[in-house]
Sequence to fold (153 residues):
Amino acid sequence: MVKTEKTTKTATAAKTTMATKTGEFLPEEDRKLSGSEAMVMKAAWDAGEDISVPDLMIALKEKYGKDYARTTVQTFLLKMIGKGFVQIYRRGKLSYVHALKGEADYKAKLLQEEMDFWYQGDPAQLVASLFRAGEMTEEDKEQIRRALDGLDD
Fold:
């Protein structure tokens, strides 16, 4: 393939989405979703199966009040492909989104990162903070206590 100015710019633009500020490339598992990408990913996970792009757009509008243009959703999806979260395929006239990463694993990774940053990796501090926040009902607190007690079994 002969490099043209256009292909070089495209390749450079694609690389910058995966590089740190120092120019080092992040491994796929270290790439995070933006807030909008996270909404798109959540809507895809909530579908429980591969979802067409038009259905994804409807879900985003109904669940999150986001009336994105098709091109905007496509831009999010292209970035998410580059981060290893989804793949897109066509069936007939429609494009479908297939999740490559699981929701539970992603949530666990996010929680671990937040716990490491805010609570020095100490889960007891995290749970204590949840209790102190004051937005939990007594029933919520009792469910957490039972879940923690169940870990000892």
About this structure: Strands lie at 51-52, 86-91, 94-99. The helical segments are 5-16, 35-47, 53-64, 70-82, 103-119, 123-132, 138-151.
